[in-house]
Design a protein that fits this description.
single chain; alpha+beta; three-stranded mixed β-sheet; 1 helix; about 30% strand
């Protein structure tokens, strides 16, 4: 699924990587980001191939 404010990928087997992707605003929290994160958490929970989920931020700020 494509998102506006985050990216979700599996860089290695068993690892889900969620990247906050609003680096021009230092990944500032928005309602849209919250909705997209909830959706990715639900997807990761339903996917038995994902054993761990890592959350990171694009650019120089994790989350403002």
């Amino acid at each position: 699924m494509d998102y506006e404010t985050i990216r979700m990928e599996m860089p290695e087997p068993g690892i889900g990587l969620i990247t906050l992707n609003r680096s021009d605003q230092l990944n500032a929290w928005t309602k849209k980001m919250m909705e997209e994160l909830i959706d990715t958490f639900c997807q990761a929970d339903e996917n038995d191939d994902i054993r761990v989920t890592i959350i990171t931020g694009e650019g120089k700020g994790f989350c403002a």
